[in-house]
């Protein structure tokens, strides 16, 4: 199964969330724990879920 590295905490994860943080135009992948920390922040935009088992 493939993994992605979390942009925020650098851990490897099999399920990553594509998000924009701080209203920047750049999309990044973050883990579920970091997603829960950032989802109520201003500028947070959810852009989909990446799953390693599908790739």
What does the model show?
This protein is mostly beta strands. The protein has one domain (4-54). The chain has one helix at 32-38; strands at residues 4-5, 12-13, 15-20, 28-30, 45-51. The termini are close together.
List keywords for this structure.
single chain; 55 residues; mainly beta; 3-stranded antiparallel sheet; two-stranded antiparallel sheet; 13% helix; globular
How many beta strands in the DSSP annotation?
5
Low-confidence stretches: none
Cα distance spanning the termini: 8 Å
Which assembly state applies to the chains in this document?
single chain
Strand order of the largest sheet: 4-3-5
**Helical percent range?**
10-25%
Individual helix count? 1
> What kind of sheet is the major sheet?
3 strands, antiparallel
Cα shape: globular
List the helices and strands and how they pair.
Layout: E1 4-5, E2 12-13, E3 15-20, E4 28-30, H1 32-38, E5 45-51
Antiparallel strand pairs: 1-2, 3-4, 3-5
């Amino acid at each position: 199964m493939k993994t992605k590295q979390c942009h925020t905490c650098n851990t490897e994860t099999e399920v990553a969330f594509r998000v924009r943080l701080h209203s920047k135009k750049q999309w990044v992948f973050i883990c579920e724990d970091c997603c829960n920390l950032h989802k109520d922040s201003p500028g947070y935009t959810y852009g989909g879920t990446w799953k390693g088992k599908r790739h």
